[in-house]
Structure formats: C-alpha cells, structure tokens
Amino acid sequence: MTRLFYLTRRVFGPAVFFITAALLSAAEPERITFCSYNLKNWLTMDRFDRQTYKTLPAAPKPEEERGRVVKILAAIKPDILGVCEIGTADDLADLQKRLKAAGLDLPHTELAHGGDESRRLALLSRLPIKARNSQTELTYQIGAQTLPFQRGILDVTISLSPTFDLHLLGVHLKSMREITEADQAQMRRNEARLLRKHIDSIFTKEPGARILAYGDFNEHRNQPAISEVMGSPRTSDVAMQDVWLKDRNGEVWTHFWDAADSYSRLDYCFASRLLRPHIDYQRSFIYSARDFDKASDHRPLVIKISAEPILKKVDVP
Fold first, then answer.
1. Total domains in the fold of the chain
2. CA-closest candidate to residue 288, choices 300, 305, 304
3. Are the beta carbons of 159 and 130 closer than 8 angstroms?
4. CATH code, 121
5. Which structural domain range is residue 136 located in?
6. What's the pLDDT band for 13 if we cut at 50, 70, 90?
7. What is the per-residue pLDDT for 305?
8. What is the pLDDT of residues 33-45, one digit of tens each?
9. What digits encode the pLDDT tens for the residues 237-254?
10. How large is the greatest C-alpha to C-alpha distance in the chain, in angstroms?
11. Is residue 21 part of a domain?
C-alpha cells in the first residue's frame, strides 16, 4: 500500500480512500507489455527422438512444445512479442494463428534473418509497425575471412503515442557451439560490435531515440560482447543499460542446458537513457513456470513500458 493511500484511509475514512484509489488507478499511464522469447527451433529440421533414439528428418517443432509455447504467451499477454529461432514465413503464420486462437491477436509482423536463413528473428505486434529497417546482409572480418552476421538485426519502430516512438532491435548472437570456421567468442563480439554500430546510427539520426535491444545474446554478463552493446561511458546519452530482470524467486537465469545441468543468463534487454524512465521495473520480470522446458530451453523476458514517464511509488509496510 502506498503512503498516499495509507494517509487517506487513516484521515478521511474508507469511502474517500476507495475514491482516491480509483482516481489514482485511472490516472496511471497505460503500460504495454513487451516480451522477448527464444522459441527453440520453431522450424523444420532434423530432430533426435529420445523415445525411439532415431533421427526424424525434416520434422517440425513437436506439437506438445508448440502448444506449451502458446500457453505461456497467452498467460503473459504481450502487446509486442520478439522471438528468436523461428523458421519461414509459414512458421511465423503458424505461431500467429495459434496465438490468435488462444485470444492473443498480433496482426503486425516482421521477419528478419542474416547469413543463417534457417533460424530467423520475428516480431509480432498488436500495434502497427511505423518503420522497418532490419539488417540482413551485415558482415565482418576475422583475419582474412569475411563472415556474415548469422541472424542479422531485426529493426522496427512502433509508436506508443503520437509523441513516443519505440525502436525495437532484436538479435540472436552466434551460439557458444565451437565451429571450425572461426572462434565462436570472437564471432559474437563482432556481431555485438555491428549491433552497437547500428544503435549509434539510430542515435545519429535521432539523438533522443528510445531504443530497446533484446534477444538471445549467448553471452555471460561480464563478457566483451555485452560491453560492446552497452557502450562506454555508461552515463553517456548513447549508452545502453541492462534492464536487469528477476523471476518471482529473485533468480536471473534465462537458459537451462540439460546436458550439463547448467543454468545461465543468456537473454537480455538493453534500454537507452531516454527509454529508462518509461519502464516499469517493478512489474517487469522473467516469466517463471515449473514446466518451462516443455516449451523451450529459454525463459521469456517481460517488460512493461509506458508512453508517459512512470513515477515510482513509495510502499509502506
């Protein structure tokens, strides 16, 4: 209970208290719900069946997993949903159709990719998309090699109000899996550097831009790739700040690797300086469910955003 509510009830009695509560509740700015979620291969691929110990060629994401993803998202009720590891436009349409059947109508979409066209990025939104600038052909150098940004950068702008444009940048950086072509950590750092360069290009055109960069960064918080995205110095107008989220138990991990029994924080949201006052940190969280792994090996990130600055309330025990 806030201090204002407490004093109102003590001094003026219950009737005035409830009237004041209703007026303040009505005056609160509307919050939209943004969700970032790695769906774990919502696409057609060869899959290992643990029951038969056989490989199933060209198999879609199992129906049970897809149903559980939809159930989780129906509980979150996002107005804007950014996802990793989705396949074709047909896969995106399948997800959209299932969400609508579950009561979640997100008619506006964007599908983006990089050098890897199998695992794409997508965004679904209740609100119209004002502008699109997804980056699908970015490359970088490691030694003599020219390598593609594997999943590219999904870039859309959505207006929360006539005076509030929200820039949403979705990424899925190189996995931690070792490959022969190059060092996987160097690849992630180069991809993060390209994301930072893209963020800076937005600030050049729009110095007061409100930007949210989100997705599966496949990196721990203290690694160079994360520092690349955040920028330096941390207090500058173009720095991106980690929106540090927790689940209902106060834990911050977002990914579970069952083979190693390992819990890690690999998914992040980073907010620009002028966006931060519009984030309701108290109501933002990591979605927690006991059977989350029946849908994906990642947990969704949920952020509440308002077109109006959010005033923090003082709670009275």
1. 1
2. 300
3. yes
4. 3.60.10.10
5. 30-306
6. low
7. 98
8. 999 999 999 999 9
9. 999 999 999 999 999 999
10. 76
11. no
